[in-house]
Amino acid sequence: MDLRVTGAYSAYALQPTRNTAPSPRTERARADSDKVSISAHAGDYQAALTAARNTPDIRTDLVSNIRSMLDAGTYSVSASDVAARIFQELA
């Protein structure tokens, strides 16, 4: 197989590839790159994330309790509690 490039790009001539065995240094780098280390902080974060994902978005026990109080006409919230909560959220 004869590869020739002539003209301005002759310095970038195509060279046939040759098969070479990887060096021991390359093999060591491959072995080192396959390791994964997770810090304790990351493990705690993962546990918290899993717990949050497994927690329902709606607290059905609280909703059913309030719904039954609304149906019975016994649910009431003071205006000052509502105003305090609004100011708390704005602060």
How would you describe this protein?
This protein has 91 residues and is mostly helical. The protein has a domain at 59-91. It is built from four helices and no strands. It has helices spanning 24-33, 40-54, 60-72, 79-90.
What's the short story on this structure?
With 91 residues, this protein is an all-alpha fold. Helix content is 55%, strand content 0%.
Task: Spell out the key features of this protein.
mainly alpha, single chain
Distance between the termini: 78 Å
| Mean of residue pLDDT values | 80
By DSSP (H or I, 4+ residues per run), the number of helices equals: 4
**How would you spell out the order of helices and strands?**
HHHH
**Residue runs with pLDDT of under 50 for 5 or more positions:** none
Largest sheet: none
The quaternary structure here is single chain
Using the CA coordinates, give the radius of gyration: 34 Å
The backbone outline, from C-alpha atoms, is rod-shaped
Relative strand content: under 5%
Helix percent band: 40-55%
Number of strands: 0
Helix/strand-derived category reads mainly alpha
